[in-house]
Design goal:
Length: about 350
């Protein structure tokens, strides 16, 4: 029988250390995906910086998001180094060292970054909910968004308390009081995400039915497909956060991995929403009216030119991601005028040729 070279620690502690390392890998993978999405979004926004001030705002938002994520990754890597390399002979092993040093700057920054990332993504979801409901009127949108906004404020307060308590000397994520604050914080944060998910999903499903009843499916799929609803409502993050909350509340070691997966899923969802927005495929407050206009245009084109009524419009191109320039050339050749909607909901009239 081969000699045992493993750590002289309880099996439960060894499991925690294994999952902690696995979480570090998940953190790196998630950050890599975010880098790719950030580059794509940033290039889009930079090219549209002269078209709308919203481009600068969104560029600043994703830059802040990536900056905090970068700091988060650095302090996580530094924590692993401190645990498994610099202090490998700490009495009890790496995990007791981690719990005993929660008041160190590297761990305090980790807590603050995690809280900041969650709040920024929750705020984006609240804004998207307001935008989607604005199609029904601004007053209704404000009323619908008011309750989630109050819950988001409560999560901010609870998250602040959780971060402060977790970084106190002798305490950690898993101490009794921080665990109670953390469970409450993630319950509230998950609650606001679930509420926003249902509000966004429900409204988009209603819009989906209205649009599909009036337009061909290919003209609407960029806005009302099931994949669109999943992305816009951040369903993936809600599922991951729910799994993390369960494992965290019962102190299951798997929460170490699910924490980083849910955090990465939240940021990735934010980038996907912004990418769809700048690409012209995310739902805007004028999208429903634009579809109504598109319906009228299709009807007029069918009557005036029954042979070529199938020519794709620039609005359709924006909705499904076709190159608008190619479509404009096609429409110019066919002597058909149309409305061109840019990525931020602005429009200009292209003259008849």
């Amino acid at each position: 029988m081969a000699p045992y070279y493993g750590p002289d620690e309880p099996q439960a502690t060894v499991q925690l250390e294994r999952f902690f390392l696995a979480g570090d890998v998940a953190c790196g993978i998630g950050y890599g995906i975010q880098l790719v999405l950030y580059y794509s979004c940033a290039m889009y926004l930079w090219n549209r910086r002269r078209q709308s001030l919203k481009a600068f705002f969104l560029l600043g938002y994703i830059t802040l998001l990536l900056s905090v994520s970068t700091i988060f990754l650095i302090v996580q890597a530094r924590t692993v180094q401190l645990m498994y390399v610099d202090n490998r002979n700490y009495p009890g092993g790496p995990w007791p060292f981690f719990l005993a040093t929660q008041n160190w700057a590297v761990n305090t920054i980790f807590d603050a970054c995690l809280f900041t990332l969650t709040f920024l993504s929750d705020a984006l979801m609240l804004w998207r909910c307001w935008v989607i409901w604005t199609s029904s009127g601004k007053i209704i949108a404000y009323l619908v968004s008011a309750f989630p906004a109050l819950i988001l404020l409560a999560s901010f307060i609870m998250g602040t308390l959780w971060t402060l308590e977790s970084s106190q000397p002798g305490l950690s994520f898993y101490s009794k009081l921080p665990l109670a604050f953390g469970t409450s914080y993630y319950s509230i944060s998950l609650g606001v995400n679930i509420i926003l998910t249902f509000l966004i999903t429900g409204r988009l499903l209603v819009y989906r039915k209205q649009i599909l009843d009036t337009l061909p499916a290919e003209h609407a799929k960029g806005y009302v497909s099931l994949l669109t609803i999943v992305v816009e409502s951040a369903t993936i993050y809600s599922v991951c956060a729910f799994l993390f909350l369960i494992t965290y509340s019962v102190n299951n070691p798997a929460n170490q991995v699910l924490l980083f997966i849910s955090c990465a899923a939240q940021q990735i969802t934010s980038y996907l929403i912004i990418y769809r927005l700048v690409d012209g495929r995310a739902w805007r407050k004028d999208t429903l009216n634009a579809f109504s206009t598109q319906k009228g245009e299709l009807s007029r084109k069918s009557k005036s030119d029954p042979v070529n009524h199938h020519v794709i419009s620039t609005f359709h191109a924006a909705s499904v991601g076709f190159p608008v320039s190619e479509v404009e050339d096609q429409i110019t050749t066919m002597s058909i005028g149309t409305d061109i909607h840019d990525s931020f909901g602005e429009s200009s009239r292209k003259p008849m040729v």
